[in-house]
Amino acid sequence: MSQPNIFSSLSRYCGDQKEHYAVAAFVLVLNHLLLTKRELAVQVVNRLVSTDDFAFEESDGIEVHAQRPAGEAGTPDITIRSADKLAFVEAKVDAPV
């Protein structure tokens, strides 16, 4: 049996906002990893957004935000930026890949 954690315990209060809750929880964990296990955090970020010619580096000053307005791009679920890179991530909960 799995151990309860803060995220599963609080998820019962998110109602129909499950996607926003999941994104906020993920961004919280990712920002914590950027402070405590940077190499792992950069690997996770790059799994989300990297291509052959675009990837974040450990030396980049990476910022990760949830639900931040981005002008013409609207309000992406996750914004990841550094001084010279910008990526948006759209999250879907309970949707097929």
Q: Please give the count of helices.
A: 3
Task: Give me the side-by-side strand order of the main sheet.
Answer: 1-2-3
| SSE class | alpha+beta
Helical amount = 25-40%
Could you tell me how far the N terminus lies from the C terminus, measured between alpha carbons in angstroms?
Answer: 27 Å
* Strand residues, percent: 5-15%
Please give the radius of gyration in angstroms.
Answer: 14 Å
- Major pleated sheet: 3 strands, antiparallel
Describe the structure.
Helices cover 38% and strands 12% of the residues. With 97 residues, the chain is an alpha+beta fold. It contains 3 helices and 3 strands, in the order αααβββ. The model has no long low-confidence stretch (mean pLDDT 85). A hairpin with a 4-residue loop joins β2 (78-81) and β3.
Write a concise synopsis of the structure shown.
The protein is of the alpha+beta class and 97 residues long. It is 38% helix and 12% strand.
Descriptive terms for the model:
3 helices, 3-stranded antiparallel sheet, 12% strand, globular, 97 residues
Which secondary structure elements does this structure contain, and how are they paired or packed?
Elements: H1 6-11, H2 18-36, H3 38-49, E1 63-66, E2 78-81, E3 86-89
Antiparallel strand pairs: 1-2, 2-3
Helix pairs in contact: 2-3
